[in-house]
Amino acid sequence: MSKFSARLRIFPRALLALLKKPWRRPPSTVKRILIAHNLLLGDTVMLTPLLAKLRRHYPQAEIVLLCKPAFVEVYRLNPYGVVPMPYQPASAASVAAIVNSGPYDLALIPGDNRYSWFALAAGSRWIVAHRPALHNAKSWPVNEYRDYPDEPMAWGDAVATLTDGELPSPQRWAAPAYDFPPPASPFVVLHVGASNPVRFWSPEQWLALADWLAAQGYTPVWSGGGNERHIVDSIDPTRRYRSFAGELSLSQLLALLAGAKALICADTGVAHLAKWVDTPTMTLYGPGNPVAFGPGHFWRNNPIINVGFHPISCRDQHTLFGRELPWLERCNRNEARCQQFCNGQSACMQHITLSEIQTAFIHLLRKIQ
């Protein structure tokens, strides 16, 4: 089914509802809440501060979170009673199910305001989103705007400002029991994939790190997504160490992380997933920003060390979801547009050295003892 067919389920219904916008008022009672988006794993996990805040403020409300179908099973483990609903933009059946799931008293739009149309089509009576850089048709259904912070802040904390109140302390997610043979303890998960090749660390460095960890008495294990097995093959072609790349669901990966001594990875979704189970984590930052995408205030007590983020001239972009943030220093280019990409690597990731990782790992162990 085409995206056009799916959109036919949204816009006719939403346009009729838009005519009533001048008469809408904030709800006095909130029984049902929709969080409408189509974010990748890491950004979806960064909605956790918002979920926690909503649950504290609306303890009896039904909170429905749209997410990619692959995320549904792990979100059923959430401690906030949030209901995950699968969303496939090109599936008319998926779109129809969401549109017919309403009405909702309140809808929150993290990220791209285009999903305010989806919320309106689902019968949302009051829609809250961050103020856009340009007031165009994407934001027409929005009833209330919240400003992005002027000062440096983690994106998860910023999204939580879509609702009022103080940030509560995070709750640990209950990881499922192993339903696969676990590695020998103590083990360290090396997640080598990333959604953007600009974030890849070199294969030689990964293997040298695994060898060093083994010499320290730890069992290194490789991790990656289903389409990232080739990355592990390039790092460890003789399978010196066990690989879980492409073998685990997200809930199984959460179980693996919960039992790990530590996780070492690039700035990617798995780094955020580990926060749910307090896994000691070292995150390698090249093009990304450790303030915007790090633990922030909500996860400030988690054992996390950010590595890298060395000065480089081409990390010169300041936008996030189309909004200009003067304090933000990042690069969102892919490998084709990266200004310093050579031999499969960006210069900002090449600047991260093995000795830097080794030193940070020792500090991380001291932090959790």
Topology overview:
Blueprint: H1 3-8, H2 11-18, E1 32-35, H3 41-45, H4 48-57, E2 62-67, H5 72-75, E3 83-86, H6 92-99, E4 106-109, H7 115-121, E5 127-130, E6 144-146, H8 155-159, E7 187-191, H9 203-215, E8 219-223, H10 229-235, H11 250-259, E9 262-266, H12 269-273, E10 281-285, E11 304-308, E12 319-320, E13 323-324, E14 341-342, E15 345-346, H13 347-350, H14 354-368
Helix pairs in contact: 2-7, 9-10
Walk me through what this model shows:
It is a single chain. With 369 residues, the chain is of the alpha/beta class. The protein has two domains: 3-162, Glycogen Phosphorylase B (Rossmann fold), CATH 3.40.50.2000; 187-368, Rossmann fold. It contains 14 helices and 15 strands. It has helices at residues 3-8, 11-18, 41-45, 48-57, 72-75, 92-99, 115-121, 155-159, 203-215, 229-235, 250-259, 269-273, 347-350, 354-368; strands at 32-35, 62-67, 83-86, 106-109, 127-130, 144-146, 187-191, 219-223, 262-266, 281-285, 304-308, 319-320, 323-324, 341-342, 345-346. The strands form four sheets. Strands 3-2-1-4-5-6 form a six-stranded parallel β-sheet, sandwiched between helices. The chain has a five-stranded parallel β-sheet with strand order 8-7-9-10-11, sandwiched between helices. Strands 12-13 form a two-stranded antiparallel sheet. Strand 2 (62-67), helix 5 and strand 3 form a beta-alpha-beta unit. It is globular. This is Glycosyltransferase family 9 protein. One of its GO terms (molecular function) is ADP-heptose-lipopolysaccharide heptosyltransferase activity. One of its GO terms (biological process) is lipopolysaccharide core region biosynthetic process. Keywords: Glycosyltransferase, Transferase.
